[in-house]
Design a protein that fits this description.
Radius of gyration of chain A: 21 Å
Largest sheet of chain A: 2 strands, antiparallel
Number of strands of chain A: 2
Number of helices of chain A: 20
Largest interface: A-B, 34 and 26 residues
Number of helices of chain B: 27
Structural class of chain A: mainly alpha
Largest sheet of chain B: 3 strands, mixed
Strand content of chain B: under 5%
Distance between the termini of chain A: 27 Å
Number of strands of chain B: 5
Radius of gyration of chain B: 34 Å
Oligomer: heterodimer
């Protein structure tokens, strides 16, 4: 028998979050007892917590496949297929984040237990982001996601680039958050509620305050657009990606972006269906700009982290295209499925690519130029093969998850074209820019295989595991995408 | 319409012409030291104005319902659904004709009197200042025409006030007479001894009147808002209409717009559930609005007509030259409040509460002022309080609804009070001459007060004409039959006895005191032995002063003829019936009550007898204290005017000054300047400057700069690649993105 209050809180629905949160707090204390030279214990313990959450998620998958959605905390959060799917992505990303750091941190002399704890905290932020059913929760989750990331960006404190990255990320992140909060305020002013479903009702029934609400929606878009690195809120991305320790970059290029998209989808689709054509057009335009800018600027990059940063901007554009396609309600399910699938595919591919980058990176933080990849084809044939797969996947070549993801995205957009002809133009931009992207992705493959070089790389077991897993995942998604996409499409918010 | 009516603008323009002549050619007209030309011209213009008033009277005999003579459109403003159009139209009806006759008639006489008085007054000033004959002539050339310019301007203003056909033109006159009052009270603002007090008195009059004017302005706004017009006839017609019909119906023209602009919600305030009057979001009952309007008008009247609580300016206004006191502060301007209430009788008839308030204020003022007058020594102050008291009688009368009685008393009071003031002026004039005669022999001193009755006595021998007219005036004021004051006061008392016993009792007691203080004054001034050298050497005034006195004395004697309360002799009542709708009209045979008449007469005679016993049988000796001093604190209380000024000083002025001082010295100077500026800001600044200059600037900043320099030198190559951009530029991009998004959404939204 449960108390009514516990029923409305519904702790079971958020069990994975609770596990990680509780574990993170325990770990924070535990870390004090771990000697300085044994900090990798903390990492393993963090992994234990994440695996615990993963187990909980595994059971929830079946549960929510049957039940649809459940509200928790009196409706402040909604746990449904969408959030479960994304939580899986986040937990996987976090596990990878721990594994990547396991060797990287001591090599760079920045091994501290706080890294793992902060990683767990930001993971919680992402997970809550995916289940937020209230603008306040969106904001809290966003800050929970962001603040540990600010610290993690500056984790390599002795490097100026890392500090600069942290400061820039923090300043601009705070700036963007302020717009988000203002957007929440305006939306609340226009609708009298912060609950997403309540906003949807108010927007439909009350035309008087619509301008206020619409502007509020626009500002929410700014705040979340910053997180997903959409043009013109993208400028922090290259600096931060380059400056932050590479495992952090890998983690946030996937996790933070996915978190931002989770909130974006949930807010737009749940709260603002009545003004879908407004945000649809806006996002379509932003998507087009983001794809253009990300892909074109990436060409001229010589640093692998900067290149991957612009690459991540470009991919944000593709995902935004699918988000824009969700404006058409009969198309929303497919479009959201495309978003989620793309996020998963991108996560696997990108994490793999960053794993290679970490392997190549030297202890002093150099070795991040693309030229440093020269000769890898001979010295590290398997790793080079995996990197080639990731690059091809990011380009959108066959037998990779990236291709399937792009296909779904474009298909979703094309299905929505009757509602918004602008999308057709954006799809054309998307196709053209993915051709353009081949230049810089293939350049990496070319350097690895065709240019003579030292081909030095450090590849401990953890990295090997990650490489194998991500490469396998990328391939699976590329060859048999069906089951996962089925699941992704079912993840559609209820 | 009788063609005579078209002459009405001249009633204002003759005095205006006189003013212009005196302003521009006054100095030229003053050919020599004894030239009277400016005064003659001013008096001529006043006389011509009187002729016009008489012509209006004649024309009205044929058309007693009166006319409105359009003169010009002053202004016209369209404000939303309403149009505020203010024409300057002359309203000639029986009420305004009475006012015109009184103002121009008494005004002319006082103008003539002023010719003689002001010559003497200016000479007095010149000698006070010790001017040479050339300088004295120069002073006279400047001041003599100036006085008459002001005087003519006053006359024109007063006539604008009484002939205006709407509240705003009346208000213009109302303000203009206030201005003239201010200018003339402070006429001797440069007097070497009392100039500062003169100008302070002028300022006090002006400021106190502002309080009343606030009420007037508010009332005018309310009237316009409620009735959509300020024209007397329209206001009254619509007010009558709104007693039974709704505001929309009565303002048929505006109804459509009013419905359109009336808000969705409205609040109902006030008492009385009569017709609601809409003020935008607020709706008041018609009854409440009428009470508000009439009480605000009353506030205006208490200012201009010197009633409780705003009467305190009038005694001080006696600082002006005597003709000013007589004309402005006794006969005409101060009666504007009575005229205004009488004119608004329709509104007061709909607000009985306000009417009762008017009556009680009038009666209370009558009694309070009368008691104060008993204990004054300054001959002019006695008359000033007497004026306040008599104005209280009039206000009480119009408050009761006895508008005829009020106007009747206004007219007779104009006669006898002007007479008294001018006679008193004659007395002072004579005393001053006597003072000069003795002062030159070395007996005089500068502290000598020619207005103090204790410095007089025994003047009957030296001023044979003055004493006669003065006694006539005093008896008229005391209400001794058959003089004018008896009839008018009796009518007021009769009206009060019929409608409100309390008012009747208050007024009767006031009447008793009236007779007493007049008796006291006459005995003190004219009888007994001279108590000073000046009084002993006083002499009669010149004929230019005494002739108006004689005329006024005649008027004060027979003025009652205009409204004898017997059958068809009740002329004024018949006359005003045309223009004052709600005046009490006594039924046949009830216009006179022998009881009331006998009581008041007996009381007046008793009071005079009492004053004779106290002051007549044992005349005051030189240096002797007033016999009433036996009353001790009571006498002091009355002598100090019930401490009204002190009370105002304590309640309003001192707290206000304390607040002002506190704001000025404590807040502004000590806190803001000394503390905030000097201590907080400057010391803070100095302190920080000290910290910043040494430890911070030399230690941290220099160190940091040097450190950064080394850092840059050491790591330039690496930094060059990473320092790709400034945060501010990134933030700018974000901001531009925000602007673009919001602009797009708004444009898209409002384009639909």
């Amino acid at each position: 028998m449960q108390l009514p209050i516990l029923e409305s809180i519904n702790l079971m629905a958020v069990l994975p979050v609770l596990i990680i949160a509780g574990w993170a707090c325990v770990l924070l204390v535990f870390d004090l007892l771990i000697p300085r030279s044994r900090k990798h214990w903390t990492a393993w313990l963090a992994l234990v917590g994440l695996l615990g959450a993963a187990v909980a998620l595994f059971f929830q998958i079946g549960h929510f496949a049957r039940l649809g959605s459940e509200a928790a905390f009196d409706g402040m959060v909604t746990v449904d297929g969408f959030s479960i799917f994304l939580q899986v992505v986040f937990v996987l990303t976090a596990i990878v984040g721990v594994l990547l750091a396991l060797d990287y941190l001591p090599r760079h002399g920045i091994e501290r237990g706080e890294y793992y704890v902060l990683l767990l905290f930001t993971t919680i932020g992402m997970m809550i982001m995916s289940m937020a059913a209230d603008l306040i929760v969106v904001f809290v989750a966003l800050e929970l996601l962001s603040i540990p990331l600010y610290i993690l960006s500056g984790f390599a404190g002795m490097r100026e680039t890392s500090e600069e990255a942290a400061l820039k990320y923090f300043l601009l992140g705070a700036f963007a958050s302020s717009f988000l909060v203002y957007g929440i305020a305006l939306t609340y002013g226009g609708t009298g509620t912060t609950r997403l479903t309540g906003i949807a009702q108010a927007v439909t029934s009350d035309a008087l305050n619509l301008p206020l609400t619409t502007v509020g929606m626009g500002l929410l878009l700014v705040g979340l657009g910053f997180k997903v690195a959409a043009v013109p809120f993208h400028m922090w991305t290259p600096d931060v990606y380059q400056g932050a320790p590479t495992p952090v970059t890998a983690f946030m290029s996937v996790g933070a972006k996915a978190g931002g998209f989770a909130a974006l989808i949930r807010v737009l689709v749940t709260a603002f269906p009545a003004i879908a054509s407004e945000w649809g057009t806006l996002i379509a335009v932003i998507a087009g700009l983001t794809m253009l800018l990300g892909n074109i600027v990436a060409i001229s990059q010589s640093n692998i982290k900067r290149m991957l940063a612009y690459s991540s901007i470009a991919h944000a554009g593709y995902i935004l295209l699918a988000v824009a396609a969700a404006q058409r309600s009969e198309n929303a399910s497919f479009a959201i499925g495309a978003v989620v699938f793309y996020l998963l595919a991108y996560a696997l591919t990108n994490l793999g690519a960053f794993t290679v980058a970490i392997a190549v990176e030297r202890d002093d933080g150099t070795g991040t130029e693309i030229d440093d990849f020269a000769g890898l084809g001979k010295t590290r044939p398997w790793m080079a093969l995996a990197m080639a797969l990731f690059m091809l996947s990011l380009t959108g070549m066959p037998i990779s998850g990236g291709l399937v993801g792009k296909v779904f995205v474009f298909q979703a957009a094309l299905q929505a074209v009757p509602g918004d002809p602008l999308l057709l133009a954006v799809v054309i931009i998307g196709v053209l820019t993915s051709v353009v992207s081949a230049f810089y992705y293939l350049k990496v493959i070319m350097v690895m295989y065709m240019r003579e070089g030292e081909g030095k790389a450090v590849l401990p077991l953890a990295l090997k595991t990650v490489l194998a897993a991500t490469a396998f995942g990328t391939l699976v998604l590329g060859i048999i995408p069906g089951p996962v996409f089925q699941m992704a499409q079912r993840a559609m918010l209820k | 319409m009788n063609s005579l009516f078209s002459l009405i603008p001249l009633v204002v323009f003759f005095p205006l012409l006189g003013m212009l002549i005196n302003i521009f050619f006054g100095r030229m007209l003053m050919a020599d030291e004894n030239s009277k030309a400016p005064g003659v011209i001013a008096s001529l213009m006043a006389g011509l104005s009187f002729v016009i008033a008489v012509l209006m009277f004649v024309a009205l005999l044929g058309e007693p319902e009166g006319v409105e003579v359009p003169f010009m459109t002053w202004f016209s403003i369209s404000a939303g659904s309403r149009t505020l159009s203010i024409p300057w139209t002359f309203k000639v009806d029986t009420l305004s004709s009475v006012m015109m006759l009184v103002v121009t008639g008494v005004g002319t006489l006082i103008h003539i009197y002023a010719i003689g008085y002001m010559h003497g007054d200016i000479d007095e000033q010149a000698s006070k200042r010790g001017l040479s004959s050339d300088e004295a002539f120069d002073l006279k050339r400047r001041r003599f025409p100036r006085f008459f310019a002001y005087f003519n301007l006053f006359l024109a203003s007063m006539l604008i006030l009484v002939t205006g056909s709407n509240y705003l033109v009346m208000f213009v006159g109302w303000e203009l007479v206030g201005l003239c009052s201010y200018l003339l009270i402070g006429f001797w603002f440069d007097d070497p001894i009392v100039g500062i007090y003169n100008s302070m008195a002028g300022r006090k009059a002006f400021v106190v009147n502002r309080i009343g004017d606030f009420g007037m302005v508010m009332a005018l706004m309310l009237i316009f808002w409620t009735f959509g017009t300020l024209q007397f006839d329209d206001v009254f017609a619509r007010a009558e209409c709104m007693r039974t019909a709704s505001q929309f119906e009565c303002l048929a023209v505006d109804a459509a717009q009013m419905v359109e602009t009336s808000p969705n919600f409205s609040l109902m305030f006030g008492f009385g559930l009569l017709q609601p009057i809409s003020f935008g979001a607020i709706t008041l009952s018609f009854q409440t609005v009428m009470i508000a309007i009439t009480l605000l008008l009353l506030l205006g009247a208490t200012g201009k007509s010197a009633q409780i609580p705003l009467f305190v300016w009038l005694p001080d206004a006696m600082a002006g030259p005597m003709p000013v006191s007589a004309l402005i502060h006794a006969a005409t301007m101060v009666t504007a409040g009575i005229y205004m209430i009488t004119r608004s009788n329709v509104l007061y008839a709909m607000a009985p509460f306000s009417a009762d308030t008017v009556a009680i204020i009038g009666a209370a003022t009558a009694l309070v002022a009368a008691t104060i007058a008993v204990a004054q020594f300054d001959i002019k102050r006695v008359l000033a309080y007497s004026t306040i008291s008599q104005l209280g009688f009039m206000i009480a009368a119009v408050g009761l609804g006895g508008y005829v009685a009020g106007i009747f008393h206004l007219a007779t009071h104009a006669f006898f009070k002007a007479l008294l003031f001018l006679s008193a002026g004659s007395v002072i004039h004579g005393i001053e001459h006597g003072h000069h005669a003795t002062a030159h022999k070395g007996h005089g001193d500068h502290a000598f007060d020619p207005q103090d009755m204790r410095n007089m006595g025994g003047l009957r021998k030296h001023m044979p004409t003055t004493i006669v007219v003065y006694i006539v005036g005093a008896l008229a004021l005391a209400g001794i039959p058959p003089l004018a004051g008896f009839w008018s006061k009796d009518e007021i008392l009769l009206d009060a006895s019929k409608h409100d016993p309390l008012i009747y009792i208050l007024l009767t007691i006031a009447a008793f005191f009236t007779a007493f203080y007049m008796g006291r004054q006459v005995w003190m001034v004219f009888f007994g032995q001279p108590r000073t050298e000046a009084a002993a050497h006083a002499h009669e005034s010149p004929p230019v002063m005494t002739t108006p006195l004689i005329i006024l004395a005649v008027l004060a004697s027979i003025g009652g003829l205009m409204n004898l309360p017997f059958g068809r002799l009740h002329f004024l009542a018949e006359w005003l019936r045309e223009s004052v709708a709600y005046a009490h009209v006594p039924a046949a045979g009830e216009g006179f009550s022998i009881t009331v008449a006998v009581i008041s007469t007996v009381l007046a005679l008793a009071a005079i007898a009492l004053s004779y016993i106290i002051y007549g049988t044992k005349p005051l000796q030189e240096g002797q204290a007033d016999p009433l001093r036996v009353a001790g604190p009571l006498f002091t209380f009355l002598n100090r005017k019930w401490y009204w000024d002190e009370a105002y000083e304590a309640v309003f002025i001192r707290p206000f000054k304390c607040l002002a001082n506190w704001l000025a010295f404590t807040i502004d100077w000590r806190f803001w300047h000394d503390f905030v500026h000097d201590s907080v800001i400057i010391q803070f600044f100095d302190g920080w400057a000290a910290i910043l200059s040494r430890p911070v600037d030399m230690g941290i900043v220099d160190g940091a700069v040097n450190g950064i320099g080394r850092l840059v030198a050491g790591a330039s190559s690496r930094l060059r690649r990473t320092q790709t951009g400034y945060v501010r530029n990134y933030a700018l991009a974000v901001a531009l993105g925000v602007v673009a998004i919001v602009a797009y959404l708004l444009i898209r939204f409002f384009a639909n």
